[in-house]
Amino acid sequence: MWKKIFGGGKSTPAPDGDDLLSNLAVDRERMPRHIAIVMDGNGRWAKAQGRSRSAGHEAGARTLKRIVRAASNMGVEVLTVYAFSTENWKRPHREVDFLLNLFDSFLAKEISEIHAQNVRMRFLGRRDRFTDRFLQRMEDTEERTGHNTGMRFNLAANYGSQDEILRAVRSIAQRAAAGEITPEEIDETFFSNALDTAGDPPVDLFIRTSGDLRLSNFLLWQSAYAELYFTETHWPDFTPEELSRAIEDFAGRSRRFGGLDAHVAGKRKSGRRSRALCE
Ligand code: IPE
Ligand code: IPE
Ligand code: MG
User: Fold this and answer.
1) Which of 246, 264, 248 is nearest to 256 (CA)?
2) What's the CA-to-centroid distance between 85 and ligand 2, angstroms?
């Protein structure tokens, strides 16, 4: 049952290290379906190099391009990355402007390749505060890639999980007030489908680069049972190889979801001693 996780068929050979992934084997059933990444540390990377924060963000965009391709080649079903939070508007105007222009040029440059990889791209977050040009770019991108059947790639921009939850609650409350739904209909699936990630499976593997051990308002509902992977590596230095290490680490973990390990539960059924332990 061990299969190489390098697959996908539609990928073109990557010039920058993705081929190393072909040496990696992970049981397909143990692959994370949904990987979320807090792409943190562009500023610290730049500082360590004696360069501007802008140079750090540009390097981060190059890393994102490589990671999207690698994740798609590995057969990841959903990749969600945190590009700009609802809190990031607190940064100096110059940096905010630089980031928004960078997203725009990233899309302009990369959309053809993303589309060629059969990746479906979608944006999470509030759609206010963006320029008309960028809004149009987002809509065009979603429309152009909307029928692709490969990896789903979510870019969270002007995203905050608490804001997303509140928007969902408000829209559900409005539908209930209008008599379209009853409160009993609101279960976990219903609520999940009211979020920006509607239709996606929950986050399995939550990665944060650059050493800080926090969630920073990213995918709080969706990550209820996510496995967390923190690395000191600054985002611009994050490689497909480190992504595969994170996946291997994930594949080795015991996910119990509040239950018991499968093999412990199995032993308990067959052995007297373990039954005694259970009592
Ligand atoms: C992440 O890098 C990118 C964004 C938040 C947009 P940072 O800019 O937060 O980098 P550090 O945390 O200052 O190193
Ligand atoms: C989280 O990083 C947001 C993104 C990566 C887009 P921040 O750098 O904004 O997070 P804090 O401020 O350290 O929590
Ligand atoms: Mg940061």
Assistant:
1) 264
2) 7
